[in-house]
Amino acid sequence: MRGFKLTLLACFVAALLFSASAQNPQREREGAKKPDTSFSPVVPKEPFAVVMARMKAAKAEIMRRQMQLLNERYDLSKRVSNEVKMTRGKPIPVGPTAKLAAGATWERLAEMSPDEIREKGLFPKGYLPLPHPNHPEGGMTFPDIMIDELEKMGEGRRLERFDLDFDLPDHFLPEFPPAIFLTTRPDLGDVSKGKVVTLDNLYELFDGILNPKQLEGFRLLVTQFPQQQFNVTEDRRTEKPSRGVTCFDCHVNGHTNGTVHLVGDIRPQENRRRIETPSLRGVTIQRLFGSQRALKTVEDFTEFEQRAAYFDGDPVIAMKKGVNILDRGTQVHDMSELQEILDFPPAPKLNLLGRLDPAKATESERRGEALFFGKANCSACHTPPYYTDGLMHDLKVDRFYKPQTINGMLATRQGPIKTFPLRGIKESPPYLHDGRLLTLEDTVEFFNLVLGVKLTAQEKGDLVAFLRAL
Ligand code: HEC
Ligand code: HEC
Protein backbone atom coordinates (compact mmCIF):
# COMPACT_ATOMS: atom_id res chain seq x y z
CA MET A 1 0.00 0.00 0.00
CA ARG A 2 2.74 2.41 0.99
CA GLY A 3 4.64 1.48 -2.19
CA PHE A 4 1.55 2.20 -4.26
CA LYS A 5 1.13 5.62 -2.69
CA LEU A 6 4.79 6.39 -3.31
CA THR A 7 4.44 5.41 -6.95
CA LEU A 8 1.39 7.61 -7.28
CA LEU A 9 3.22 10.50 -5.70
CA ALA A 10 6.19 9.92 -7.97
CA CYS A 11 3.99 9.94 -11.10
CA PHE A 12 2.29 13.11 -9.99
CA VAL A 13 5.55 14.89 -9.26
CA ALA A 14 7.07 13.65 -12.50
CA ALA A 15 4.17 15.06 -14.50
CA LEU A 16 4.44 18.35 -12.67
CA LEU A 17 8.18 18.65 -13.10
CA PHE A 18 8.11 17.49 -16.67
CA SER A 19 5.64 20.18 -17.63
CA ALA A 20 7.64 22.79 -15.72
CA SER A 21 10.87 21.85 -17.46
CA ALA A 22 9.18 21.69 -20.84
CA GLN A 23 7.99 25.25 -20.32
CA ASN A 24 11.33 26.45 -19.11
CA PRO A 25 14.22 24.39 -20.42
CA GLN A 26 16.68 27.19 -19.61
CA ARG A 27 15.80 27.07 -15.93
CA GLU A 28 16.04 23.29 -15.99
CA ARG A 29 19.60 23.50 -17.28
CA GLU A 30 20.64 26.11 -14.73
CA GLY A 31 19.00 24.09 -12.00
CA ALA A 32 21.22 21.14 -12.96
CA LYS A 33 24.45 23.08 -12.33
CA LYS A 34 26.07 22.17 -9.05
CA PRO A 35 27.07 25.04 -6.75
CA ASP A 36 30.80 25.86 -6.64
CA THR A 37 31.50 24.22 -3.29
CA SER A 38 33.95 21.39 -2.67
CA PHE A 39 31.34 19.38 -0.75
CA SER A 40 28.32 17.32 -1.78
CA PRO A 41 25.10 17.93 0.15
CA VAL A 42 24.74 15.31 2.89
CA VAL A 43 21.00 15.62 3.51
CA PRO A 44 19.01 15.85 0.27
CA LYS A 45 16.06 18.25 0.33
CA GLU A 46 13.72 15.98 -1.65
CA PRO A 47 12.53 12.39 -1.22
CA PHE A 48 14.09 9.70 -3.42
CA ALA A 49 10.92 9.13 -5.49
CA VAL A 50 10.76 12.81 -6.40
CA VAL A 51 14.40 12.99 -7.45
CA MET A 52 14.12 9.79 -9.47
CA ALA A 53 10.97 10.97 -11.24
CA ARG A 54 12.56 14.28 -12.16
CA MET A 55 15.80 12.71 -13.37
CA LYS A 56 14.01 10.03 -15.37
CA ALA A 57 11.94 12.70 -17.07
CA ALA A 58 15.06 14.70 -17.94
CA LYS A 59 17.06 11.71 -19.23
CA ALA A 60 15.90 11.67 -22.86
CA GLU A 61 16.85 15.31 -23.36
CA ILE A 62 20.24 14.84 -21.67
CA MET A 63 21.09 11.89 -23.90
CA ARG A 64 19.82 13.71 -27.01
CA ARG A 65 22.14 16.61 -26.22
CA GLN A 66 25.13 14.30 -25.67
CA MET A 67 24.53 12.30 -28.86
CA GLN A 68 24.17 15.53 -30.81
CA LEU A 69 27.57 16.60 -29.47
CA LEU A 70 29.15 13.26 -30.42
CA ASN A 71 27.64 13.36 -33.91
CA GLU A 72 28.88 16.89 -34.38
CA ARG A 73 32.41 15.78 -33.43
CA TYR A 74 32.75 12.33 -34.93
CA ASP A 75 31.65 10.07 -37.74
CA LEU A 76 30.27 7.36 -35.46
CA SER A 77 29.53 4.85 -38.22
CA LYS A 78 31.07 1.41 -37.92
CA ARG A 79 34.34 1.19 -39.85
CA VAL A 80 36.57 -1.64 -38.71
CA SER A 81 39.73 -3.41 -39.87
CA ASN A 82 39.48 -6.64 -41.86
CA GLU A 83 42.98 -7.75 -40.88
CA VAL A 84 43.70 -6.49 -37.38
CA LYS A 85 41.78 -7.99 -34.50
CA MET A 86 41.97 -7.90 -30.74
CA THR A 87 42.99 -11.12 -28.95
CA ARG A 88 39.59 -12.82 -29.05
CA GLY A 89 38.68 -11.60 -32.51
CA LYS A 90 36.95 -8.21 -32.26
CA PRO A 91 38.08 -6.10 -35.24
CA ILE A 92 39.74 -2.82 -34.28
CA PRO A 93 37.94 0.42 -35.26
CA VAL A 94 39.43 2.45 -38.11
CA GLY A 95 39.49 6.24 -38.48
CA PRO A 96 40.12 9.08 -38.40
CA THR A 97 36.64 9.63 -37.01
CA ALA A 98 37.03 13.27 -35.96
CA LYS A 99 35.18 15.64 -38.30
CA LEU A 100 37.00 18.61 -39.81
CA ALA A 101 35.59 22.14 -39.91
CA ALA A 102 34.07 23.07 -43.29
CA GLY A 103 36.82 23.56 -45.88
CA ALA A 104 39.63 22.26 -43.66
CA THR A 105 41.89 19.32 -44.53
CA TRP A 106 44.36 17.46 -42.32
CA GLU A 107 47.22 18.65 -44.54
CA ARG A 108 46.24 22.32 -44.37
CA LEU A 109 45.72 22.17 -40.61
CA ALA A 110 49.20 20.72 -40.15
CA GLU A 111 50.65 23.74 -42.02
CA MET A 112 49.07 26.22 -39.57
CA SER A 113 50.49 27.37 -36.23
CA PRO A 114 48.60 26.54 -33.01
CA ASP A 115 47.73 30.28 -32.72
CA GLU A 116 46.20 30.35 -36.16
CA ILE A 117 44.20 27.16 -35.55
CA ARG A 118 42.92 28.61 -32.25
CA GLU A 119 42.04 32.04 -33.67
CA LYS A 120 40.19 30.56 -36.64
CA GLY A 121 38.46 27.93 -34.47
CA LEU A 122 39.72 25.13 -36.73
CA PHE A 123 40.86 22.56 -34.15
CA PRO A 124 38.75 19.44 -34.84
CA LYS A 125 36.01 19.39 -32.20
CA GLY A 126 36.69 15.70 -31.56
CA TYR A 127 40.13 16.67 -30.24
CA LEU A 128 38.70 18.97 -27.55
CA PRO A 129 38.17 17.53 -24.05
CA LEU A 130 35.13 15.24 -24.02
CA PRO A 131 32.40 15.81 -21.42
CA HIS A 132 30.77 13.06 -19.35
CA PRO A 133 27.33 12.02 -20.74
CA ASN A 134 25.84 14.33 -18.09
CA HIS A 135 28.72 16.43 -16.83
CA PRO A 136 26.88 18.44 -14.14
CA GLU A 137 25.79 15.14 -12.57
CA GLY A 138 28.77 12.86 -13.34
CA GLY A 139 29.47 9.49 -11.74
CA MET A 140 30.20 5.95 -12.92
CA THR A 141 28.46 5.19 -16.23
CA PHE A 142 28.63 1.63 -17.55
CA PRO A 143 28.25 0.50 -21.18
CA ASP A 144 25.11 -1.54 -21.99
CA ILE A 145 27.18 -4.55 -22.97
CA MET A 146 28.35 -4.88 -19.34
CA ILE A 147 24.90 -4.26 -17.85
CA ASP A 148 23.32 -6.82 -20.19
CA GLU A 149 25.99 -9.49 -19.60
CA LEU A 150 25.61 -9.32 -15.82
CA GLU A 151 21.87 -9.64 -16.25
CA LYS A 152 22.40 -12.79 -18.33
CA MET A 153 24.64 -14.09 -15.54
CA GLY A 154 21.79 -13.68 -13.06
CA GLU A 155 22.86 -10.44 -11.37
CA GLY A 156 19.95 -8.33 -12.59
CA ARG A 157 20.44 -4.89 -14.09
CA ARG A 158 22.49 -3.82 -11.11
CA LEU A 159 24.76 -1.42 -13.02
CA GLU A 160 21.91 0.48 -14.70
CA ARG A 161 21.32 4.09 -13.65
CA PHE A 162 17.91 5.68 -13.98
CA ASP A 163 19.26 9.10 -14.92
CA LEU A 164 21.58 8.49 -17.87
CA ASP A 165 23.06 6.00 -20.36
CA PHE A 166 26.51 5.33 -21.74
CA ASP A 167 27.20 7.31 -24.91
CA LEU A 168 29.82 5.72 -27.24
CA PRO A 169 28.89 2.91 -29.69
CA ASP A 170 30.29 -0.59 -28.91
CA HIS A 171 32.56 -0.72 -31.95
CA PHE A 172 34.80 1.93 -30.34
CA LEU A 173 35.15 -0.10 -27.12
CA PRO A 174 37.54 -2.93 -26.18
CA GLU A 175 36.43 -6.48 -26.93
CA PHE A 176 34.08 -8.02 -24.42
CA PRO A 177 34.72 -10.08 -22.41
CA PRO A 178 38.45 -9.43 -22.76
CA ALA A 179 41.22 -12.03 -22.54
CA ILE A 180 43.30 -12.41 -19.37
CA PHE A 181 47.05 -13.06 -19.48
CA LEU A 182 49.08 -13.83 -16.35
CA THR A 183 52.77 -12.97 -16.01
CA THR A 184 53.07 -16.05 -13.78
CA ARG A 185 51.50 -18.53 -16.25
CA PRO A 186 52.28 -17.38 -19.81
CA ASP A 187 52.13 -21.06 -20.79
CA LEU A 188 48.34 -20.99 -20.40
CA GLY A 189 47.68 -18.10 -22.81
CA ASP A 190 44.27 -16.49 -22.30
CA VAL A 191 42.84 -17.83 -19.02
CA SER A 192 39.43 -16.09 -19.25
CA LYS A 193 37.75 -18.97 -21.12
CA GLY A 194 35.70 -16.23 -22.78
CA LYS A 195 33.86 -15.41 -19.56
CA VAL A 196 33.38 -12.33 -17.41
CA VAL A 197 34.99 -13.28 -14.09
CA THR A 198 32.56 -12.81 -11.19
CA LEU A 199 32.17 -14.29 -7.72
CA ASP A 200 30.12 -17.08 -9.32
CA ASN A 201 32.86 -18.51 -11.54
CA LEU A 202 36.06 -17.23 -9.88
CA TYR A 203 36.87 -20.40 -8.02
CA GLU A 204 36.13 -22.77 -10.87
CA LEU A 205 38.27 -20.68 -13.25
CA PHE A 206 41.29 -20.01 -11.02
CA ASP A 207 41.65 -22.63 -8.30
CA GLY A 208 44.89 -24.45 -9.09
CA ILE A 209 46.23 -21.53 -11.20
CA LEU A 210 46.58 -18.77 -8.60
CA ASN A 211 47.98 -19.02 -5.09
CA PRO A 212 45.53 -18.61 -2.18
CA LYS A 213 46.58 -15.00 -1.57
CA GLN A 214 45.98 -14.03 -5.20
CA LEU A 215 42.66 -15.90 -5.17
CA GLU A 216 41.57 -13.91 -2.13
CA GLY A 217 42.70 -10.67 -3.82
CA PHE A 218 40.69 -11.61 -6.91
CA ARG A 219 37.66 -12.33 -4.73
CA LEU A 220 37.81 -8.81 -3.31
CA LEU A 221 38.25 -7.34 -6.81
CA VAL A 222 34.94 -8.91 -7.87
CA THR A 223 33.07 -8.11 -4.63
CA GLN A 224 30.60 -5.21 -4.50
CA PHE A 225 31.30 -2.25 -2.22
CA PRO A 226 29.21 0.94 -1.88
CA GLN A 227 29.92 3.87 -4.20
CA GLN A 228 28.54 7.37 -4.76
CA GLN A 229 25.81 6.43 -7.29
CA PHE A 230 25.48 2.76 -6.27
CA ASN A 231 24.51 2.47 -2.59
CA VAL A 232 21.44 2.27 -0.38
CA THR A 233 20.85 5.97 0.42
CA GLU A 234 18.29 8.34 -1.06
CA ASP A 235 20.81 10.04 -3.29
CA ARG A 236 21.78 6.89 -5.18
CA ARG A 237 21.16 6.66 -8.94
CA THR A 238 19.78 3.11 -9.14
CA GLU A 239 16.09 2.30 -8.82
CA LYS A 240 16.62 -0.28 -6.11
CA PRO A 241 19.09 0.07 -3.24
CA SER A 242 22.47 -1.16 -4.49
CA ARG A 243 25.18 -3.25 -2.82
CA GLY A 244 27.70 -1.19 -4.75
CA VAL A 245 30.16 -1.88 -7.55
CA THR A 246 33.17 -4.17 -7.92
CA CYS A 247 36.60 -3.10 -9.14
CA PHE A 248 36.18 -5.39 -12.14
CA ASP A 249 32.75 -3.94 -13.04
CA CYS A 250 34.96 -1.34 -14.77
CA HIS A 251 38.33 -3.08 -15.08
CA VAL A 252 36.51 -6.15 -16.40
CA ASN A 253 38.81 -9.23 -16.42
CA GLY A 254 41.63 -6.88 -15.42
CA HIS A 255 41.27 -4.95 -18.69
CA THR A 256 38.57 -2.34 -19.32
CA ASN A 257 35.05 -2.15 -20.71
CA GLY A 258 35.29 1.61 -21.32
CA THR A 259 33.21 2.65 -18.28
CA VAL A 260 33.53 6.38 -17.64
CA HIS A 261 33.60 8.52 -14.54
CA LEU A 262 34.55 12.07 -13.51
CA VAL A 263 37.96 12.49 -11.91
CA GLY A 264 37.57 12.95 -8.15
CA ASP A 265 40.33 15.39 -7.40
CA ILE A 266 39.24 18.60 -9.11
CA ARG A 267 36.70 21.21 -8.07
CA PRO A 268 34.41 22.82 -9.04
CA GLN A 269 32.33 20.28 -10.95
CA GLU A 270 32.69 21.91 -14.38
CA ASN A 271 36.51 21.67 -14.19
CA ARG A 272 36.45 17.95 -13.45
CA ARG A 273 37.43 15.70 -16.36
CA ARG A 274 35.75 12.72 -17.92
CA ILE A 275 38.01 9.73 -17.33
CA GLU A 276 37.83 6.43 -19.13
CA THR A 277 38.74 3.26 -17.23
CA PRO A 278 42.36 2.35 -18.05
CA SER A 279 43.41 -1.26 -18.57
CA LEU A 280 45.19 -2.90 -15.66
CA ARG A 281 47.18 -5.09 -18.08
CA GLY A 282 50.84 -4.43 -17.40
CA VAL A 283 50.03 -2.17 -14.45
CA THR A 284 53.02 -3.79 -12.73
CA ILE A 285 55.61 -2.09 -14.96
CA GLN A 286 54.13 1.36 -14.34
CA ARG A 287 55.43 3.91 -11.88
CA LEU A 288 52.55 6.39 -11.69
CA PHE A 289 48.91 5.52 -11.11
CA GLY A 290 45.99 7.71 -12.16
CA SER A 291 46.15 10.09 -15.14
CA GLN A 292 46.76 13.20 -13.05
CA ARG A 293 47.09 12.33 -9.40
CA ALA A 294 50.12 10.11 -9.98
CA LEU A 295 49.95 7.96 -6.84
CA LYS A 296 53.12 5.96 -6.47
CA THR A 297 52.09 2.33 -5.94
CA VAL A 298 49.34 -0.07 -6.97
CA GLU A 299 48.68 -0.59 -3.24
CA ASP A 300 48.08 3.14 -2.76
CA PHE A 301 45.77 3.30 -5.75
CA THR A 302 43.81 0.23 -4.66
CA GLU A 303 43.18 1.77 -1.26
CA PHE A 304 42.46 5.15 -2.75
CA GLU A 305 39.97 3.86 -5.35
CA GLN A 306 37.62 2.51 -2.76
CA ARG A 307 38.05 5.13 -0.06
CA ALA A 308 38.18 8.25 -2.21
CA ALA A 309 37.54 7.80 -5.95
CA TYR A 310 34.34 5.83 -5.27
CA PHE A 311 33.02 8.92 -3.45
CA ASP A 312 34.39 11.71 -5.66
CA GLY A 313 37.18 12.43 -3.17
CA ASP A 314 34.69 13.46 -0.46
CA PRO A 315 35.17 11.59 2.86
CA VAL A 316 32.04 13.20 4.33
CA ILE A 317 29.71 11.58 1.81
CA ALA A 318 31.79 8.35 1.91
CA MET A 319 30.92 7.86 5.59
CA LYS A 320 27.25 8.32 4.85
CA LYS A 321 27.09 5.90 1.94
CA GLY A 322 29.08 3.12 3.59
CA VAL A 323 32.77 3.34 2.75
CA ASN A 324 34.52 0.00 3.21
CA ILE A 325 37.97 0.54 4.72
CA LEU A 326 40.31 -2.16 3.41
CA ASP A 327 42.97 -3.56 5.68
CA ARG A 328 46.34 -2.51 4.23
CA GLY A 329 48.41 -5.47 5.33
CA THR A 330 46.08 -8.16 4.03
CA GLN A 331 43.26 -7.06 1.75
CA VAL A 332 45.06 -4.23 -0.07
CA HIS A 333 48.13 -6.42 -0.60
CA ASP A 334 46.09 -9.36 -1.83
CA MET A 335 44.20 -7.20 -4.31
CA SER A 336 47.41 -5.55 -5.50
CA GLU A 337 49.26 -8.82 -5.92
CA LEU A 338 46.56 -10.06 -8.24
CA GLN A 339 46.66 -6.86 -10.29
CA GLU A 340 50.47 -7.05 -10.47
CA ILE A 341 50.36 -10.34 -12.39
CA LEU A 342 47.98 -9.13 -15.13
CA ASP A 343 50.09 -9.13 -18.30
CA PHE A 344 49.89 -7.25 -21.59
CA PRO A 345 48.56 -9.33 -24.52
CA PRO A 346 51.26 -11.09 -26.58
CA ALA A 347 52.98 -9.02 -29.31
CA PRO A 348 54.54 -11.70 -31.54
CA LYS A 349 56.36 -9.21 -33.76
CA LEU A 350 58.37 -7.61 -30.93
CA ASN A 351 61.79 -8.85 -29.78
CA LEU A 352 63.27 -8.88 -26.26
CA LEU A 353 63.85 -5.14 -26.36
CA GLY A 354 60.30 -4.38 -27.41
CA ARG A 355 61.49 -3.49 -30.93
CA LEU A 356 60.19 -5.02 -34.18
CA ASP A 357 61.78 -8.26 -35.27
CA PRO A 358 62.60 -7.32 -38.89
CA ALA A 359 62.01 -10.89 -40.04
CA LYS A 360 58.39 -10.80 -38.83
CA ALA A 361 57.40 -7.20 -39.60
CA THR A 362 55.96 -5.80 -42.83
CA GLU A 363 57.68 -2.96 -44.65
CA SER A 364 55.02 -0.51 -43.59
CA GLU A 365 55.47 -1.49 -39.91
CA ARG A 366 59.23 -1.09 -40.22
CA ARG A 367 58.85 2.37 -41.77
CA GLY A 368 56.40 3.21 -38.96
CA GLU A 369 58.95 2.15 -36.35
CA ALA A 370 61.61 4.35 -37.94
CA LEU A 371 59.20 7.31 -37.83
CA PHE A 372 58.21 6.57 -34.21
CA PHE A 373 61.88 6.77 -33.18
CA GLY A 374 62.75 9.50 -35.70
CA LYS A 375 60.74 12.19 -37.47
CA ALA A 376 57.51 11.70 -35.46
CA ASN A 377 59.41 11.87 -32.15
CA CYS A 378 56.98 9.60 -30.28
CA SER A 379 59.83 7.79 -28.49
CA ALA A 380 60.77 11.00 -26.66
CA CYS A 381 58.00 10.00 -24.21
CA HIS A 382 56.93 6.48 -25.24
CA THR A 383 60.14 4.52 -24.61
CA PRO A 384 60.44 0.76 -25.19
CA PRO A 385 59.98 -1.99 -24.14
CA TYR A 386 56.53 -0.90 -22.82
CA TYR A 387 56.40 2.46 -24.57
CA THR A 388 56.07 4.69 -21.54
CA ASP A 389 58.68 6.82 -19.78
CA GLY A 390 56.78 6.51 -16.49
CA LEU A 391 56.44 10.30 -16.34
CA MET A 392 53.79 12.96 -16.91
CA HIS A 393 53.78 15.57 -19.66
CA ASP A 394 51.75 18.67 -20.38
CA LEU A 395 50.90 18.36 -24.07
CA LYS A 396 49.50 21.93 -23.94
CA VAL A 397 46.61 20.96 -26.20
CA ASP A 398 44.95 24.18 -25.00
CA ARG A 399 47.26 26.07 -27.41
CA PHE A 400 44.78 25.01 -30.11
CA TYR A 401 41.46 26.18 -28.66
CA LYS A 402 39.85 28.97 -26.67
CA PRO A 403 38.46 28.14 -23.23
CA GLN A 404 34.83 27.15 -23.68
CA THR A 405 31.98 25.43 -21.86
CA ILE A 406 30.77 22.24 -23.54
CA ASN A 407 27.60 20.62 -22.11
CA GLY A 408 28.45 21.77 -18.60
CA MET A 409 32.20 21.02 -18.80
CA LEU A 410 34.78 23.79 -18.92
CA ALA A 411 37.41 22.97 -21.56
CA THR A 412 40.43 24.85 -20.32
CA ARG A 413 44.09 24.10 -19.55
CA GLN A 414 44.56 20.40 -18.76
CA GLY A 415 48.04 20.31 -17.23
CA PRO A 416 50.34 17.28 -17.06
CA ILE A 417 48.92 13.81 -17.76
CA LYS A 418 50.75 10.52 -17.39
CA THR A 419 52.28 8.88 -20.46
CA PHE A 420 50.11 5.81 -20.89
CA PRO A 421 52.02 2.74 -22.13
CA LEU A 422 51.44 1.78 -25.76
CA ARG A 423 52.01 -1.99 -25.41
CA GLY A 424 48.80 -3.71 -26.47
CA ILE A 425 47.33 -0.32 -27.42
CA LYS A 426 45.13 -1.61 -30.27
CA GLU A 427 43.04 -3.47 -27.66
CA SER A 428 42.02 -0.45 -25.60
CA PRO A 429 40.15 2.14 -27.63
CA PRO A 430 39.05 4.89 -27.12
CA TYR A 431 42.24 6.84 -26.40
CA LEU A 432 43.55 9.54 -24.02
CA HIS A 433 42.45 9.86 -20.40
CA ASP A 434 38.93 10.96 -21.43
CA GLY A 435 38.57 8.68 -24.46
CA ARG A 436 38.16 11.62 -26.87
CA LEU A 437 40.18 9.87 -29.64
CA LEU A 438 38.17 6.94 -30.98
CA THR A 439 40.79 5.23 -33.18
CA LEU A 440 44.56 4.87 -33.61
CA GLU A 441 44.31 6.96 -36.81
CA ASP A 442 42.88 9.76 -34.65
CA THR A 443 45.79 9.51 -32.21
CA VAL A 444 48.23 9.92 -35.10
CA GLU A 445 46.37 12.95 -36.57
CA PHE A 446 46.14 14.41 -33.05
CA PHE A 447 49.86 14.02 -32.26
CA ASN A 448 50.77 15.21 -35.75
CA LEU A 449 49.17 18.56 -34.82
CA VAL A 450 50.21 18.61 -31.14
CA LEU A 451 53.87 17.87 -31.91
CA GLY A 452 53.92 19.79 -35.21
CA VAL A 453 55.83 17.01 -36.96
CA LYS A 454 54.19 17.37 -40.41
CA LEU A 455 53.80 13.74 -41.38
CA THR A 456 52.70 12.85 -44.94
CA ALA A 457 49.61 10.68 -45.54
CA GLN A 458 51.81 7.64 -46.15
CA GLU A 459 53.86 8.28 -43.02
CA LYS A 460 50.67 8.46 -40.93
CA GLY A 461 49.56 5.09 -42.34
CA ASP A 462 52.95 3.56 -41.50
CA LEU A 463 52.87 4.91 -37.96
CA VAL A 464 49.41 3.39 -37.42
CA ALA A 465 50.72 0.05 -38.75
CA PHE A 466 53.51 0.18 -36.14
CA LEU A 467 51.09 1.04 -33.29
CA ARG A 468 48.95 -1.94 -34.29
CA ALA A 469 51.98 -4.22 -33.87
CA LEU A 470 52.82 -3.10 -30.33
C1 HEC B 1 34.34 3.66 -12.83
C2 HEC B 1 34.76 2.32 -12.76
C3 HEC B 1 35.95 1.97 -11.86
C4 HEC B 1 35.91 1.17 -10.76
C5 HEC B 1 34.71 0.55 -10.13
C6 HEC B 1 37.28 1.04 -10.33
N1 HEC B 1 38.11 1.74 -11.16
FE1 HEC B 1 40.14 1.76 -11.07
N2 HEC B 1 40.16 3.24 -12.45
C7 HEC B 1 39.06 3.77 -13.07
C8 HEC B 1 39.43 4.98 -13.75
C9 HEC B 1 38.52 5.87 -14.57
C10 HEC B 1 40.82 5.16 -13.52
C11 HEC B 1 41.70 6.31 -14.00
C12 HEC B 1 41.78 7.32 -12.85
C13 HEC B 1 42.51 8.58 -13.21
O1 HEC B 1 42.83 8.80 -14.36
O2 HEC B 1 42.77 9.37 -12.29
C14 HEC B 1 41.25 4.02 -12.72
C15 HEC B 1 42.57 3.79 -12.32
C16 HEC B 1 42.97 2.68 -11.61
C17 HEC B 1 44.35 2.30 -11.38
C18 HEC B 1 45.56 3.03 -11.92
C19 HEC B 1 45.78 2.58 -13.34
C20 HEC B 1 46.72 3.43 -14.13
O3 HEC B 1 47.08 2.98 -15.23
O4 HEC B 1 47.08 4.54 -13.73
C21 HEC B 1 44.33 1.19 -10.59
C22 HEC B 1 45.54 0.41 -10.08
C23 HEC B 1 42.94 0.88 -10.32
N3 HEC B 1 42.14 1.79 -10.98
C24 HEC B 1 42.50 -0.15 -9.52
C25 HEC B 1 41.17 -0.27 -9.10
C26 HEC B 1 40.74 -1.07 -7.97
C27 HEC B 1 41.65 -1.93 -7.11
C28 HEC B 1 39.40 -0.91 -7.86
C29 HEC B 1 38.46 -1.44 -6.82
C30 HEC B 1 38.78 -1.03 -5.46
C31 HEC B 1 39.00 -0.03 -8.96
N4 HEC B 1 40.10 0.34 -9.65
C32 HEC B 1 37.68 0.31 -9.23
C33 HEC B 1 37.78 3.22 -13.06
C34 HEC B 1 37.33 2.36 -12.08
C1 HEC C 1 55.69 14.91 -24.88
C2 HEC C 1 55.45 13.50 -24.60
C3 HEC C 1 54.74 12.70 -25.68
C4 HEC C 1 55.08 12.53 -27.00
C5 HEC C 1 56.25 13.11 -27.75
C6 HEC C 1 54.08 11.63 -27.55
N1 HEC C 1 53.18 11.26 -26.59
FE1 HEC C 1 51.68 9.94 -26.80
N2 HEC C 1 51.02 10.41 -24.96
C7 HEC C 1 51.63 11.29 -24.09
C8 HEC C 1 50.77 11.55 -22.97
C9 HEC C 1 51.08 12.47 -21.79
C10 HEC C 1 49.59 10.81 -23.19
C11 HEC C 1 48.31 10.83 -22.35
C12 HEC C 1 47.52 12.07 -22.75
C13 HEC C 1 46.11 12.13 -22.21
O1 HEC C 1 45.58 11.10 -21.77
O2 HEC C 1 45.51 13.21 -22.26
C14 HEC C 1 49.79 10.10 -24.46
C15 HEC C 1 48.86 9.23 -25.02
C16 HEC C 1 49.04 8.56 -26.21
C17 HEC C 1 48.15 7.57 -26.73
C18 HEC C 1 46.87 7.06 -26.06
C19 HEC C 1 47.20 6.08 -24.97
C20 HEC C 1 45.98 5.55 -24.26
O3 HEC C 1 46.11 4.55 -23.54
O4 HEC C 1 44.89 6.12 -24.38
C21 HEC C 1 48.64 7.17 -27.94
C22 HEC C 1 48.06 6.12 -28.87
C23 HEC C 1 49.85 7.91 -28.16
N3 HEC C 1 50.09 8.72 -27.08
C24 HEC C 1 50.62 7.83 -29.31
C25 HEC C 1 51.65 8.71 -29.58
C26 HEC C 1 52.28 8.80 -30.86
C27 HEC C 1 51.92 7.96 -32.07
C28 HEC C 1 53.24 9.77 -30.75
C29 HEC C 1 54.15 10.30 -31.83
C30 HEC C 1 53.47 10.79 -33.01
C31 HEC C 1 53.19 10.26 -29.39
N4 HEC C 1 52.21 9.60 -28.71
C32 HEC C 1 54.05 11.21 -28.88
C33 HEC C 1 52.89 11.81 -24.24
C34 HEC C 1 53.54 11.91 -25.43
Describe the structure.
The chain is mainly alpha-helical and 470 residues long. It has two domains: 262 residues, no CATH class; 176 residues, Orthogonal Bundle (Cytochrome Bc1 Complex, Chain D, domain 2). It is 34% helix and 5% strand. The strands form four sheets. It has a two-stranded antiparallel sheet. Strands 3-4 form a two-stranded antiparallel sheet. Strands 5-8 form a two-stranded antiparallel ribbon. Strand 6 and strand 7 form a beta hairpin. It binds heme C (HEC) (2 copies). One heme C binds next to helix 14.
Strand neighbour order, sheet with most strands: 1-2
The number of domains: 2
Beta-strand share of residues: 5-15%
* Tally of helical runs: 15
Structural class of the secondary elements? mainly alpha
Helix % is 25-40%
Whole-number radius of gyration? 23 Å
The count of strands amounts to 8
The unreliable regions are 8-31
Give me the strand/helix succession.
Answer: HHHEEHHHHHHEEHHHHEEEEHH
The biggest sheet amounts to: 2 strands, antiparallel
Distance between the termini: 61 Å
Mean pLDDT: 93
Gross geometry: globular
In short:
With 470 residues, the chain is mainly α.
Topology:
Elements: H1 2-23, H2 25-32, H3 48-73, E1 80-85, E2 91-93, H4 106-111, H5 114-119, H6 144-152, H7 202-206, H8 212-221, H9 247-250, E3 260-262, E4 274-276, H10 298-307, H11 315-321, H12 328-339, H13 363-373, E5 392-393, E6 404-406, E7 409-411, E8 417-418, H14 440-451, H15 457-469
Antiparallel strand pairs: 1-2, 3-4, 5-8, 6-7
Helix pairs in contact: 1-2, 1-3, 8-12, 10-12, 13-15, 14-15
The structure holds heme C (2 copies).
Residues 291, 376-378, 380-382, 393, 395, 417, 419-420, 422, 425, 428, 431-433, 443-444, 447, 451, 463 line the site of one heme C.
